[in-house]
């Protein structure tokens, strides 16, 4: 309480900002995102069933692997949707950051499921590689092309309505959908090769290629989510530069315990201690420092502690 109290005054400037920011953040994107995600979810769920039964009927691993992939996609899109709904829940005394972080958890989980599914596909392909079963390539191509069209529609609905670039949660959902589209292209290609040359080993080979593509995109999402969960410094911000900018503020002689981290995609926070020269106005230095981190680095959620020579506090481990 004392913390928020002592900061209340100096914070009102940055808070009004962070407030409008977080509001516009959750409201301008959210309805669109949700709609885009929901469309993608319905389409993907439908295609999953189509490809699964299609794979069983035609005997195609490429289709089955694509439907397994679709299963993870359906789950991950659903999870992303839950994350969006959770993220707009208000913060409470128990969860002072609200539920923004849930999106990062969802993205991490998505990345991991993609890994598991790729593993299954590669394993099954290896089994089939030596004695590839005959595949009904005509029906397989038909089903794959329906799948491809549907994937492109859901990818488009995610791109058009939402920030796949800024939001890791949407990005992980979008990657799922795009790698699905690749899966359908793969299945189409395999079907074509098999119907022309009856070369049935094309099915497992294409399945493995799809699995490797899935792995690559999954790795990117896992790395980013892990970095955020480890309270890593946001990629767009250089901690050293922030430190130097704060040291340039008039009256600041030392900066320590400086931390910059990400709460969720598009929401970064900074905290730090500034030791100031005797006789400097605390409020003035604070105002200047808040201005610097916001204007130069876009860090609106700032908590800065101003200390003078008389203050001592224990060494912190980080």
List descriptors.
318 residues, mainly alpha, three-stranded mixed β-sheet, 3 strands, 9% strand, elongated, disordered N terminus
Which of globular, elongated, flat, extended, rod-shaped describes the shape?
Answer: elongated
Note the run of SSEs as H and E: HHHHHHHEEHE
Overall helicity: 55-70%
Number of strands: 3
The number of helical elements comes to 8
Using only CA atoms, what is the Rg?
Answer: 25 Å
Q: Could you say which structural class the secondary elements and strand pairing correspond to?
A: mainly alpha
Low-confidence stretches: 1-31
Q: What kind of sheet is the major sheet?
A: 3 strands, mixed
Q: What is the CA–CA distance across the termini? A: 23 Å
Mean pLDDT: 81
Oligomeric form: single chain
In what order do the strands lie side by side in the largest sheet? Answer: 1-2-3
Strand content: 5-15%
Task: Walk me through what this model shows.
The chain is mainly alpha-helical. It is built from eight helices and three strands; from the N terminus they run αααααααββαβ. The protein has a three-stranded mixed β-sheet. The two termini are 23 Å apart.
